[in-house]
Write a structure and sequence with these properties.
15-stranded mixed beta sheet; mainly beta; 8-stranded antiparallel beta sheet
């Protein structure tokens, strides 16, 4: 890594001396004089982002990127600033019509030649007016003198299939100067086509016509529910002016809906937000494929996108690659003395520069421009003493002992980090009570992200049991969940059988309170019909949706009728998927806490930086083993309150009982109308 000193930075960035450009890229001019340099994905990911707007053109609306790269600066070897212009090409392409010349057919080929009547720099040919439907392999060659030919497209495909809503009438190739084009149709597996009504070639120009940048991007398969394929697409950076994703797909015919999403902040939670949808189409006939696998999207904010494809009753879609299609981009125009230059960028505070070179903008389309190239990017670090951390990394104090569960977060490098919540965290906590704490008892601010893909949990093998009231035609299986208290989920079961028709019910035993009301009978929580009648294809896996449960054992009941028991292979539980995104300062140990019912959802200032955090790359970490209540001292304030209240009520009841009970030593009251006998001796009557 190259270190860029503060003294040099202050000498170069005079407008904002405390702002540091974070990237540097060599530029190799094509020749002395006017040069043209195309923006590539690496530079686009580092400069201030562009805005995308649609403008009208003869061929429809065209997406154009404007208003970005205000922080871009060019310097020569002596650190002298070099003026430049960002020039947006005209969106209208220039097409040159051609005169058609017949070519003698062979047993397996036919075709024609197109004469542009003068040598032209071209990069695309458009063939119009062929009667539909057709699907043809084609080879394209170019020549300047009709004697020496250059192979431009060795094996292309053109098609117009109205019933399949598929059409492609253009062939792209590397820009070159040609007068003649020769098109050769492959007629071995399809009928011959007549001469087209019109053939045109697009004139290649540095300043005219949209030439969208294309970049291959990484794509990886993600866990998913039945009948759906999910993929994660990793872009070169965040806030890129990308307007479509084009897929490469294996296999044969394709007709499936697809949807692309990214996470965006909604209130206090990051939720999946749709960027675009399309129906993926491909038709294969006699080994020739016609395809439309592009998904238009609004420009993303994140560096990661989620792709979901509805597979229906088909096997999972085999996505082998993806390409990002950019909006029409401006190019960099500069004057060169032939020496190498350096581009520096990555400062979010700089404003767009203003140079006297602006006076030459109108002349750029008439100039002959050499093609400059980018060199290998170099990271630049500027150390500014006393600069505060730009990310909130410490929150309010919190007592870890008041949480029922805790988990260690593995140490790691400083920076943006993501932490998934697993089944244990979802069962024993909630999104309201989850917290991240430092060793000294301070909260670490985070964002909660709800992911589009489910959290897949493999369940133990299904255990066949016999219910006391089950008839012979009923099969009952015990399903054991990993935890009580799981949120609403989806239960997926699989079978290897191909032809069957069954009624499936999911039951649970009633609680003590419900037992009296239901007289001990099971409670149905989900049910469905499971039917498959194609012996050539595997049966789709059904999905039952149980509600939030406070128990761990369920019963899966299958009404077999007069058939043999349906063989079940396994079961999977699909839970909602969440992760925490936070900024880690240093490698100090952190702790994940949850298990308190008295906490409101957290509110952190970090939410104000959500657009920056969601678009930045992050390191994934997994929490350690869960420590239960036995490992955490203290109880939650809610438990303390209810225990104290119960003790107070009990003491009050004891006191009232003592006051109402008669005492053992209290005197008895005399009975009404009785005489108390005298205790003295009787005196003899006087005078006897």
């Amino acid at each position: 890594m190259k270190r860029f000193s503060l003294a040099v930075a202050l000498g170069v960035l005079q407008a904002l001396p405390l702002a540091a450009q974070r990237a540097e890229r060599p530029i190799l001019p094509g020749a002395r004089g006017p040069n043209r340099l195309t923006l590539d994905p690496i530079v686009l990911a580092g400069v201030q982002p562009f805005h995308v707007a649609e403008v009208a053109a003869a061929e429809g609306r065209v997406a154009v990127a404007t208003g970005g790269a205000a922080d871009l600066r060019l310097y020569d070897a002596s650190n002298k600033e070099v003026p430049y212009l960002l020039v947006t090409p005209q969106v209208e392409a220039q097409w040159r019509g051609a005169r058609l010349l017949r070519v003698a057919p062979s047993k397996t080929t036919s075709g024609f030649e197109a004469d542009l009547e003068s040598i032209q720099p071209i990069d695309r040919v458009r063939i119009a007016g062929l009667p539909a439907p057709y699907l043809k392999r084609v080879r394209l060659e170019g020549s300047g003198d009709r004697s020496h030919w250059t192979l431009l497209v060795p094996d292309g495909t053109l098609f117009d299939l109205p019933n399949d809503q598929l059409e492609l009438s253009t062939l792209d190739f590397a820009s070159g100067s040609y007068r003649y084009l020769r098109v050769t149709w492959d007629d071995r597996s399809s009928a011959r086509v007549p001469l087209p009504r019109r053939v045109e070639a697009r004139v290649a120009s540095a300043v005219r016509g949209p030439a969208p940048l294309r970049a291959a991007v990484a794509v990886e398969r993600r866990p998913s529910e039945p009948a759906k394929s999910r993929f994660r697409i990793k872009l070169p950076g965040a806030h890129l002016p990308i307007v479509a994703i084009e897929l490469s797909v294996g296999g044969g015919n394709v007709l499936r809906p697809a949807r692309i999403t990214e996470g965006r902040l909604d209130g206090s939670t990051v939720v999946p937000t749709e960027l675009g949808t399309a129906t993926l189409r491909r038709s294969v006939r006699d080994g020739v494929a016609a395809a439309a696998l592009r998904i238009p999207i609004t420009p993303p904010s994140e560096a990661e996108l989620e792709l979901a494809v509805d597979d229906g009753n088909n096997p999972p879609l085999d996505v082998t690659g993806a390409t990002a299609i950019f909006a029409t981009l401006p190019f960099i125009f500069f004057e060169s003395n032939g020496d190498s230059l350096f581009a520096r960028y990555g400062n979010t505070q700089l404003k767009a520069p203003s140079y006297d070179l602006e006076a030459e903008r109108e002349r750029v389309p008439s100039l002959t421009l050499a093609t400059a190239r980018w060199g290998t990017p170099v990271s630049v670090t500027v150390t500014l003493n006393g600069t505060p951390s730009p990310m909130p990394t410490a929150g309010a104090e919190i007592d870890p002992k008041t949480f029922r569960y805790s988990r260690d977060i593995p140490s790691g490098e400083a920076g943006l980090t993501t932490l998934p919540l697993d089944a244990a965290a979802l069962a024993h906590g909630s999104l309201s009570d989850v917290r991240i704490a430092t060793a000294d008892g301070h909260q670490v601010p985070f964002l909660i992200e709800r992911l589009d893909e489910p959290l897949s949990v493999a369940l133990p093998a299904l255990e066949r049991v016999k219910g006391a009231r089950d008839p012979v035609s009923r099969s009952r299986y015990r399903i054991h969940l990993p935890y009580a208290g799981l949120p609403g989920s989806r239960l997926v079961i699989h079978t290897d059988a191909r032809v069957f028709d069954r009624q499936v019910t999911l039951e649970m035993l009633p609680s003590a309170e419900e037992d009296a009301r239901t007289r001990g009978g099971p409670i149905t929580i989900a049910q469905m019909s499971w039917r498959h009648a194609d012996p050539e294809l595997p049966a789709p896996a059904p999905t039952l949706e149980p509600p939030p449960l406070r128990i761990t054992d369920l019963s899966l009941v299958i009404d077999e009728g007069d058939n043999a028991p349906l063989p079940l292979r396994d079961a999977t539980l699909l839970l909602p998927s969440y992760r925490l995104r936070f900024f880690r300062e240093g490698s100090a140990p952190l702790t994940l806490l949850y298990g308190r019912s008295d906490l409101a959802p957290p509110r952190y200032d970090l939410a104000l930086l959500a657009p920056r955090l969601l678009g930045a790359p992050a390191r994934d970490v997994t929490p350690g083993a869960e420590h239960g209540a036995a490992n955490v001292t203290g109880v939650t304030p809610t438990i303390v309150f209810w225990c104290a209240l119960a003790l107070a009520v009990l003491a009050l009841l004891v006191l009232i009982a003592r006051l109402l009970r008669p005492g053992d030593d209290a005197p008895s009251a005399p009975a009404t109308g009785t005489t108390t006998p005298s205790t003295s001796s009787a005196s003899p009557a006087t005078g006897e």
